[in-house]
Amino acid sequence: MATNNTKIIKQQRNNSPVQRTVIPVEIRNRLNIKPYDYLEIFTTDDSIVLKKYVQNCVFCGSQDDGQIFKEQYICNNCKQGLKGDQHD
Ligand SMILES: [Zn+2]
Q1: CATH code that applies to domain 1-53
Q2: Dist. CA 87 → ligand 1 center (Å)
């Protein structure tokens, strides 16, 4: 039975000049990783860990869709609220 801890082992060559590694499509689909999504990379004792980077809105903390503005992530709902607060 497959679990989140299921190991997917694929023989991959990681010998390109820029050391690229492809994340298998099964894993990308399971974690809903789309092209250009951000990933965190870190190490444990003997492993390299890639983790989907989830951004939280700087105002409300939600993980809803949004965008980076001046290096801060703002969800679309708060972005709309900001536009409504303009007094000009
Ligand atoms: Zn927000």
Answers
A1: 2.10.260.10
A2: 20
